[in-house]
């Protein structure tokens, strides 16, 4: 582990999906020698293969958080590493329900980071039904965060899912619908909230 509690698996998963080889990990830290920064840690192997190797070497690393409480699956969601998430939840299904220090699942992180592919995958996969309405420490579900973030696609993906609870209250006693009144444009609010059947029909054609 480094000074921030990151394991090699955290490093491997922090490489952005769109940069599959040799990119500086998000969680890489400078190697300091005296007052000078001499070099930076880097990953040279393709990150997906490296992820497999690290999990084979130490299965428990999938359940080890860093000092901020983020587990490898949270890092993968932040970095848009859908393929790595599939590997993690296939081998270790319990990873799906892990929460960080803010009480957030990897779905919360994907929504905050506007990772549509990951949100879509979660919404289309039955094994994740139990986390769709999970609330973080502030009582926010993934849909609450999608409304706050204001991304149409992640919002719509969650909104049309039949398992999503539209009336879930956060700690401020606000439902996602109520948050949407002040968080998204009036026209979009009318389209997604007042006319949900229309939204659902259009979205399923995509």
Report on the structure:
This protein has 206 residues and is mainly alpha-helical. It has two domains: 101 residues, Serine Threonine Protein Phosphatase 5, Tetratricopeptide repeat (Alpha Horseshoe), CATH 1.25.40; 80 residues, Serine Threonine Protein Phosphatase 5, Tetratricopeptide repeat (Alpha Horseshoe), CATH 1.25.40.20. Helices cover 44% and strands 4% of the residues. It is built from eleven helices and two strands; from the N terminus they run αββαααααααααα. The protein has a two-stranded antiparallel ribbon. A hairpin with a 2-residue loop joins β1 and β2. α3 packs parallel to α5.
Could you give the topology of this structure?
Elements: H1 8-13, E1 30-33, E2 36-40, H2 47-57, H3 72-78, H4 82-91, H5 106-112, H6 116-124, H7 142-149, H8 152-159, H9 176-183, H10 186-194, H11 196-203
Antiparallel strand pairs: 1-2
Helix pairs in contact: 3-5, 5-7, 6-8, 7-8, 7-9
Pfam family, one: Ank_2
Keywords: ANK repeat, Repeat
ANK repeats: 138-171
């Amino acid at each position: 582990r480094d000074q921030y509690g990151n394991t090699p698996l955290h490093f491997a998963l922090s490489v952005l999906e769109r940069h599959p080889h040799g990119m500086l990990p998000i969680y890489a830290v400078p190697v300091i020698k005296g007052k000078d920064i001499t070099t930076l840690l880097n990953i040279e192997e393709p990150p997906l293969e490296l992820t497999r190797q690290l999990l084979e070497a130490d299965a428990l690393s999938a359940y080890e958080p860093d000092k901020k409480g983020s587990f490898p699956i949270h890092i993968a969601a932040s970095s848009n590493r859908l393929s790595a998430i599939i590997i993690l939840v296939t081998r270790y299904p319990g990873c799906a329900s892990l929460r960080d220090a803010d009480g957030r699942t990897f779905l919360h992180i994907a929504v905050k980071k506007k990772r549509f592919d990951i949100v879509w995958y979660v919404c289309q996969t039955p094994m994740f039904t139990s986390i769709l309405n999970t609330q973080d420490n502030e009582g926010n579900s993934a849909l609450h965060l999608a409304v706050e973030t204001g991304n149409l696609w992640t919002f719509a993906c969650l909104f049309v899912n039949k398992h999503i609870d539209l009336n879930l209250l956060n700690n401020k006693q606000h439902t996602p619908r109520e948050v949407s009144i002040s968080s998204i444009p009036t026209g979009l609010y009318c389209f997604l909230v007042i006319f949900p059947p229309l939204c659902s029909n259009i979205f399923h054609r995509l």
